[in-house]
Amino acid sequence: MHTPEKLRGLSDIYRFFRKNTTPIYFVSPTAYNILGLGQWIQGFQYITHFDSFDGGHFRVTNPQQNSEREFSSMEDMLNYLLSHKESVDLFQENGGKGKILTVMFDEKTEEIAERLGLEIALPPAELRTHLDSKIVTTQLANEAGVRSAPNLVDVEASSYKELTALAAEKKLGDKLVVQTPYGDSGKTTYFVNNQQDWDKNADKITGEKLKVMKYINHIPGTVEAVATRCGTMVGPLQTDITGYEELTPYKGGWCGNDIFPEILQGEQRDKIITMVKAMGDKLYEKGYRGTFCFDYLVDTDDGEVYLGEINPRISGASPLTNLVTSKYGGIPLMLFHLLEFMDVDFEIDVDEIQKRWADFGSWTQLVLKHTEDQVRMITKAPRSGIWRMADDDSISFVRNSIDWNNVSDGHDAFYLRVYGAGDYSYLGADMGIVVARGRMQTDDRQLLPRAEKWVKAINAEFEYRTLEELETPYIPIDNVRKMI
């Protein structure tokens, strides 16, 4: 039996993926999270629910939905896609074996993959769920010597009085941030400053195990990293774009990122990278390997750096991470995740490779959520591809594009459509994503005018019909709010 030789550097890694014979599938609502990765990997394909490219992406398969169906979660949608006859036929055409990448999955996904003879190239669902708890994350960080903002975890409160009594013991102050263990994009983070704030959120807080934090004036950011057998490799730092009412209906909700080389130079930057490496090494020790997202907080009053939370998965930070590491560093970070699951031995110098993306251009991604609390049928939606903004702030479609590499200057942007004509919009739906060169947010966390112009212009490209105008009104039972 032939034993593959150990990969010992980037040349070996490039050659390995260029000659790869193992089918690799990214299965998700859209291709966005790791769009463009197929340029590096032979045999890479996407299976998605939304046809963002009108059939124009040669690596994307969109199984046709043959009946009206409500999806209750991303996992539910993923399991449908994996089990679909068109997907199964594709797997069989490619030899019946292969690796699966995705964002969210559960134990049922693992059962489907095993039945199909496929391997999910991610840590087990049970481990991911365990680590995704904000309480567990904080406890692991403490073990790794990674500081969190002053807090107490694994507590319960049935009243505002009880909450403030708990906070007083830890001297957390009167302005509190309360989180339940699980939740994404800020949807289960509550700011409680008084009885009124408690009353507004009490039904979501009571009966839950809680993490209670001191509120700090801060800059939120994120960084994607990969925990490997050779150590933890850290991607470029990003700042979060959160809570803008033009982009999201959720207070504190995530709606994009800026990435630029000047983020937190010097001691703060070094400290964040050290924290991420320590956290990644701790995760690997606990059996977790591969990509994860580390959310950090920088206290603007004293400059201290803290862990916010961990997302143990491919995440919303993945697109800009892979864009920058491939375009400026010569290799997308995601390849190192795949190496951990590709049945090949490798030896790499993580610090040397990490230096490759020390300098890069500035980019932004904006996630446009539906901010109106009404359900409407979309009759027209902007196309995926390159759009250009004129001097009068109007935009026009320039050309089809299957990723953002053709964004030439600050007047252009790549738009990825999620919801299109015939779909229904609803509060919090991820309608689409804008990727552009340059920043969209100021240092003091205000949307730049160019961001507001792009959001307004893209939203103006949508047309709707109200439920009253439809012959058969649509009443959604449940909807998947998160698509990336």
UniProtKB/TrEMBL annotation:
ATP-grasp domain spans which residues?
Answer: 138-342
Which Pfam families does the UniProt record give?
Answer: CPSase_L_D2
Q: Which organism is it from?
A: Amphritea balenae
Q: Which UniProt keywords apply?
A: ATP-binding, Nucleotide-binding
- What is this protein's record name? Biotin carboxylase
What terms describe the molecular function in GO for this protein? Answer: ATP binding; metal ion binding
